[in-house]
Amino acid sequence: MADNTPLLDAQGLYVSLGGLPILRDVGLQVHSGEAVAILGGNGSGKSTTLRTVLGLIPFQEGSVRLFGTELANFHAWDRVGYVPQHSSLNVSNATVREIVSSGRLSHHRVFQWPSRQDRAHVTHALDLVGLTDRGRWPFVDLSGGQKQRALIARALTSEPELLIMDEPLAGVDLHSQAGLAGLLGQLRSDGLGLAVVLHEQGPMADVLDRWVTLCDGRIVTSETQGATDCAPEPAKTSSMGWLDPVAGVRR
Amino acid sequence: MIELLSLPFMQRALLAALLSGLVAPAIGMYIVQRKLSLLGDGLGHVAIMGVGLAFLTGTAPLPTAVVTCVVGAVAVELLRQRGTATGDLGLAILFYGGIASGVMMAGIAGQGAAGLSAYLFGSLTSVSTGDLWAIGILGVVILILTIGLGPRLFAVAVDEDYARVLGIRVKLLNLLIVVLAAVTVTISMRTVGLLLISALMVIPVATSQQLFIGFKGAFFGAMGVGVLAALLGTVGSFYIDSATGATIVVASIGLLAVSWLVAGPLRRRRNFIPYVEDHPHGAVEHERAENHDDGHAHEPGVKVIQHGDHVDYVHGGHRHAVHGDHYDEH
């Protein structure tokens, strides 16, 4: 693979759910060793963008390429890690290790059970997020922040080249946030590509290379600087619009 | 016990019951995890249609019921994946249509309710050698699939979206689970009966989850509990002269009650958290807790909870938090 091929290349995505437009002309590129933040308010389409590029939500227009391959033909899922919002998890009494080891499945053949090597990967991932001694705990007994760290460990066990995360630091205490940001920065320097939805930049600010801000399903900024405010309506009328009788009638 | 095992029909009965006890909780584990506990009951209704159809056409009940129930299960899953109100209504129509048409066809074939009841509530002592072979082969297939595909089925049950990003074929595996449930229901119709088999898919799982931490532990534990319930129920029904299927289900409920008695006090002790009112750090008069390092917090039995702006450790019935170089007792 040529070095300049983006790990993730989404262009001109249009997504509508139940007739409502959710994303309008959204693009997202992530290269190796690059961390891109997706910012924006509630309902701005951040999570939808991530879920669309992963193929979890169908898009009506545009294109998604992962590692240079069209999404429909992409099968190398062991190169992709995903950290969803933890509220979607359905566990009764699975242990933390069991949840984390499912991250290794993308490397497995269909009837394969975890090997000694897999267990070593799981232990290493738990070490990385500071949950070394929580492996045998029931997942439901963890605090919100620890659950989030476990989900990050689950994504890291597959040793992904592209990591896609949906508010990974939500509910994580400040001390661990700094630790996780440091870890992600380290992995980025080793060549990991990151796309991360954030509510606020917080301790991730030092790790991030680019910021994409979404507002109402559109990209309002895509810069190397911080976010701008999201205007409720795109300013299409002239600033003197309130004086214009025709515009007034139209409204 | 010895004279009981020397009777050939009892040997077959016991073998068939043990197979049901082993297989039903294995598939039940995924059914419970996906919150579809009543699915088995609905599939039992569909299987009644298969039995009626077999009576009417004069074919062997077991293969006909397996095929009918598998077709029904595929319809159930496709309706469920649509996830709409019409899908829900469709399930109800399928289930009641199944039982009504089954009873109707059995009646036309001249078998009536009496002929059906051997399948509704089980008739273990009438299990033939041919039945036993069919039950055995299908049971082994179910075990190979539920254990061999275990890690994948677990991942799908926990988090479908994440499983998709792992490249797992989620819809196919969801379909497989209901098809295997359908086969389990039908091969158990002579042992526990179509109306009661659902209980053997769910209750041993609930029992095992009381006793074992972790999915894998609970999975094999549930199979053990199922086998024990089948053994107790079969032997018990012989001595107290009761219906075997019903006795197996009552035995499994008895085991669940025992597991509550055993696990209840254990769980309460593990989950006990002394109550502390919310307070800003340092605002409350506090005593210094004994000085110990953070390491003990990672031992089993020590609970860590977020408490406002800091983290509390709960162990041995008391609760404390880190404050600089020492611990505050709450």
From TrEMBL, chain A:
<dbReference type="InterPro" id="IPR017871">
    <property type="entry name" value="ABC_transporter-like_CS"/>
</dbReference>
<dbReference type="InterPro" id="IPR027417">
    <property type="entry name" value="P-loop_NTPase"/>
</dbReference>
<keyword id="KW-0547">Nucleotide-binding</keyword>
<dbReference type="GO" id="GO:0005524">
    <property type="term" value="F:ATP binding"/>
</dbReference>
<dbReference type="GO" id="GO:0016887">
    <property type="term" value="F:ATP hydrolysis activity"/>
</dbReference>
<feature type="domain" description="ABC transporter">
    <location>
        <begin position="8"/>
        <end position="241"/>
    </location>
</feature>
<dbReference type="InterPro" id="IPR003439">
    <property type="entry name" value="ABC_transporter-like_ATP-bd"/>
</dbReference>
<feature type="region of interest" description="Disordered">
    <location>
        <begin position="226"/>
        <end position="251"/>
    </location>
</feature>
<keyword id="KW-0067">ATP-binding</keyword>
<dbReference type="Pfam" id="PF00005">
    <property type="entry name" value="ABC_tran"/>
</dbReference>
<dbReference type="InterPro" id="IPR003593">
    <property type="entry name" value="AAA+_ATPase"/>
</dbReference>
<dbReference type="InterPro" id="IPR050153">
    <property type="entry name" value="Metal_Ion_Import_ABC"/>
</dbReference>
<keyword id="KW-0813">Transport</keyword>
<protein>
    <submittedName>
        <fullName>ATP-binding cassette domain-containing protein</fullName>
    </submittedName>
</protein>
